[in-house]
Amino acid sequence: MLAAIQTDVDLTALTTLGVPARAAFFCKAGSVDEIRDALAWADSKGVPVQILGGGSNVVFAADFAGLVLQPALPGRAHVGETTNAHLVQVGAGERWHDTVSWTLQHGWPGLENLALIPGSVGAAPIQNIGAYGLELTDRFHELEAFDRTTGESVALDREACRFGYRDSVFKRHPRDRWIVLSVTFALPRAWTPQASYRDLAEELLARKIAEPSAQDVFDAVVAVRQRKLPDPAEVGNVGSFFKNPLVDAATWQRLASAFPGLVSYPQADGHFKLAAGWLIDQAGWKGRSLGHARVHPNQALVLTNAGGATGKEILALADAIAEDVARRFDIQLEAEPIVIGKPASD
Fold first, then answer.
1. Last residue within a domain, chosen from 71, 93, 111
2. Cα–Cα dist 145/168, whole Å
3. Is residue 25 a contact partner of residue 275, using CB atoms and an 8 Å limit?
4. Which of 18, 38, 151, 193 has the fewest beta carbons under 10 Å from its own?
5. What does it do (predicted)?
6. Phi and psi torsions of 164, nearest 5°
7. CATH assignment at residue 40
8. Annotation marks residue 168 as catalytic
């Protein structure tokens, strides 16, 4: 089946931030053949290609004068076992939160700490999503990806994916070499709860649950996220806009001495992870707006589309926050979402 190429497509509803943008061409590909066909079409026309997953980690700062390709491969299946884990393979086009729920329903816990994260399964390894003490890499077995340089599908293990904090090989140059087709997870057969993260532990304590099941952890994570973070269906956002900065011990000591309330988390390698939300809050940005872009009043790490915001306004707010944090704390904030297109100059 040939890939269906649409022209002049409105992308606003295809991103959780909901800023206006259009693609000159668009294709939602449900198979490897359709992906290959769409790429061949773009090559024949000489137009650039932008891969778009669930749209939960992207800011369109301008229209895209090429082909936006959205891999939408379906499917979920238990594909085997190892001594320690159930192997579950999921197509790139499946919704992440629905997948987490599905694994629990089938008795394969392990992803529950990552509940309610928006976006698609195919986008999850690109960002190495993480929350409440767990990262995707902790439950990763391998993935299948289409290599645009060779036109072949290959399997990539954890080492090949080069996972880091909110990072992977897929975010490095050339950024769009790989198109994720499916992800296989290794879900522990001997499951134990990962519930030491402060917000999660406090929620379980409030529920008077001392020995939580996987479903208890799932429910608690959902409750915490719903309380702290806006629903993208109601308020446009991409979740956490900035990464939590990693600093060395000397930098941490300097900041801790100057700011006794500093929120930080020691790392195994001697570094410290700073809470970017705390830095932004201390800089006075929580609840503030620039144009139609706003810092969420309940979570300073989340930038929102307050209604009618453009990508340019979101980025202007992010730049203003980063400049202020750098001036006050001498810490450089790094944005999490991918920015597509340069804002037009005034």
1. 71
2. 13
3. no
4. 151
5. Cell wall formation.
6. -140, -170
7. 3.30.43.10
8. no
